[in-house]
Amino acid sequence: MRRLIRLNLWAVLAAALMAVPGIAAPNDPKPAHAKKPADPFLTGDPFTLDQMLILLKQDAIPLRRRKEAIESRGIAFPLSSDALSKLESAGATDEILDVIKSKAKPVAAPVVAPKPLAKGMLELTCAPAECQVSLNGTSIGPTSGGKLEVAGLTPGNWVVDFAKEGFSGHQSTVAVEPAKSTTASATLELDRAAREAYGKQLFQRMIRALGGEDGLKTLGSAQAVGSTTLWAHDGTSVRWTLLMRNRTDRALFQAKSGRILHEVMFEGSEFKASKNLKGDEALQLPTDFGMIRDDQLPALIARLQNPGYKLSANRPDPVAGEDYTILAESGTEKISIDLDPDLRPQRVRIATEAGIGSALITYSDYVQNGNAFFPKTMLIKPDAQQQGIEVRFDKVELNPNLKETDYKIRGKALVELDN
Q1: Which of 13, 32, 210, 227 gets the highest tally of CB atoms within 10 A of its CB?
Q2: DSSP class of 234
Q3: 194-407: CATH superfamily
Q4: How far apart are CA 362 and CA 110, in angstroms?
């Protein structure tokens, strides 16, 4: 009687599972001699979540057989946290859950769209104002008062270009950060063509400040009386009373100290000294007087007017508190001229590749004679010497009425020379 009841119960469960799509009833017993067909309970489609919830409640089906069916057929649903919660509520044991988990496919992580980054800002400054600005090669316009703000920029690296006519451009890469303001600045330098144009303008203004072309002709011939202090190589110095007669093609220097009178005459690049000039003085005085002659302003300006020199300057107009400099460059030499507030030479720096002839010359105490201006004080400091040459003239006569014979060595003082 009990056996009959169990058989009937099995038939009822099989019929119920057959009613659920994808779950086939166990095979009916067949005669021993017939070929055993495939078990649809083990070979059906993967279990859906609903089928699995029903299967978990079928306690009449042995646990072993249910596990075997899950292992054989697999599952057709992702094992999300929600599905796992439903399986546990349906009575799934740890043993069953382990089998289900082994057949489950990984749950794909939800695709979360990244939050858009907040935009950034650039604060750009440029000197001299105004500059044209480009970002990543696209022009965005000029600065105003030397400044430009650009908002709404995507965070990341941006290439910033500053440009201005007559100036060399400037480029930099700036990192823009989200919701932040980043600064970028540039100081543009004049390009070569502009600096050369300014150099020519400033050079002509300097000549006009000295008296113009007529003034240079006047400065080209001078007679001056004063003193000079000369330093020997051993550091000792001698102060001489000095007479200078100088013009483009010739010059005469008379130096007196006590009863000693020495003379040096220049004709072109050659010189002749008085017979009493001997020893170290025979070498030192002609060299020092030659530097005084070569560094007279007319000689310096004639040198810079040579086409072999390229003149340049940063600006042609004066700015309060700033020295104005003219730079003259040849193949082997650089000469920089700092101008005083009246645009007259104040300091001249000569630098040569070999170092020979390199010196710093200072001019001051300009005196006006007619339309020309002559510096009464000169300081010449050669780079190779610890000390230099100091010249201070008390009396200056420009364009004197002198003959060629007035430039000859006489052996006596041509004017009253007192120490």
Answers
A1: 210
A2: T
A3: Lipoprotein localisation LolA/LolB/LppX (2.50.20.10)
A4: 81
